[in-house]
Amino acid sequence: MAWEWSHSQEAYDNARENLYNQSLQWLKICLAEIEAEQPINSGEFDERVYKIYMDSMKDITKDSRESLIESIWDVMSTEIRTCDNGGFNAWCCPYGCHTVPFDKV
User: Which 3 state secondary structure label does DSSP give 99?
Assistant: First the structure.
């Protein structure tokens, strides 16, 4: 079961900061999963789109990391807005397999 976000601004700031602490590979996978399920929350995963996005991001370096994070955060905070049961971890992808805590880590 999943919940919709209903946290303090501090919790959102922590989740965003925790997103910045993820590895580049983790972020690439997360964004590819987001792109593979369009529209968000449709429940349909397009493996072909996932592979295309993973291939297109193979040259992304740490220099492009911030724009990758901001793209993920934008979708997380406006379209997904889901967290685990209990409200401890924000979903970073449409499936809840990539999450960051709302607590400061």
Answer: strand
Q: Which two tokens stand for residue 76?
A: 């997380």
Determine the residue type at 81: R
What are the boundaries of each domain within the chain? Answer: 2-101
Please give the sequence-ordered ranges of beta strands (E in DSSP) within the chain, or none if there are none.
2-4, 82-84, 89-91, 99-101
Query: DSSP state, 80?
Result: I
The three-class DSSP label of residue 59 is coil
CB of 80 within 8 A of CB of 8? no
pLDDT digits (tens, 9 = 90+) for 84-94: 999 999 999 99
Separation in Å, CA 33 to CA 6, 28, 70, 102, 104: 24, 9, 15, 21, 25
